[in-house]
Amino acid sequence: MKPCPSCDRHLRGTERTCPFCGEPLREVTASLLAVISLATVLAGCTEDPPADPTSSSGLDSTGASSISGTGMVGSSTGPFETTAVDSDDATTDGSSGGGFIYGDPDGGDVFPCDPFQQDCPEGEKCVPWANDGGSTWNDTRCAPVVPDPVPPGEPCTVEGSGTSGIDDCAAGAMCWDVDPDTNAGTCVALCMGSEAAPVCDEAGTTCVMANDGVLTLCLPTCDPIEQQCPQDQACMPVGDAFVCIFDAGNQGGYGDSCEAIAACVPGLVCVAPQDVPGCMSASCCTELCSLSDPAGDAQCTGAPQGQQCVPWFESDPPPEYVDLGVCRVP
Q1: DSSP secondary structure string, 169-225?
Q2: 300-328, pLDDT tens digit by residue?
Q3: How, if at all, do strands 173-179 and 155-157 pair?
Q4: E strand or H helix that includes residue 288
Q5: How many domains does the chain have?
Q6: Is the alpha carbon torsion for 284, 285, 288, 294 positive or negative?
Q7: 321 located within any domain
């Protein structure tokens, strides 16, 4: 899809003239494609340095990842790639770019839409879905808003599967944490504002963007030490925040291999192998700890092998996480 330079509506890449305003559309030339290809090759050849678990944004993953309808699927090096924006800090820019995404005149095709602008026809909403029928949200679509829709925070039901995009939630919300056996979940608000400045209205939530921007969710923040998330969820790091997300179904203990963000038991996180003595995998589980706890490094199972309770954030932690530490080899 590409935007019309005149009316900002999203069009098919093959269009030569905008069907809405008649504006001629410039083709992408071969020379430009060559530059894009070269940039892609150069990017692919760049070797990223190992992620620093004490960076200012916590344990950031350098690998691609996604969220599926049945659990978390993430990089083996730690948290999944997302953006998390505190709803108290973000502001909207007032921009109204983009526009309605049109489809086949006969209604046979489904085309993407903008979850921030909610640019679907009246009576519909823009939601994430799996366009291949799979278990991972990989696209957006317009879906009908049912009569008497369910507001965020209330129980909901999906049609087909958790990634169908069809549910009974209100506009600006989607059915989340769906039980595959009952198709029942909970309505969660989608982020508002823009991709550059997403916001969430409800206090105690933060905007989490994942799956290449397809998922834009206002998820509740949590205390990673207390681990007070609902059943089958875990308090896990996303950017500069911790949010309640799906439990991956694994129960990795200290030193166990972990291949998903929520693969460790609550209170443990998935980190690089050099931070866990004896780790023989691409990543292993280790404990979170309290910097003010009199036990100090004794909170860490790997203390005899050199692990220490060090700050989760290298500098300027958010106020709610000033006491948060992680057991690692410094």
Answers
A1: BPTTEEEEEEETTTTEEEEEEBPEE-SSSEE-SSTTEEEEEETTTTEEEEEEB--TT
A2: 999 999 999 999 998 888 899 999 999 99
A3: unpaired
A4: strand 284-290
A5: 1
A6: negative
A7: yes
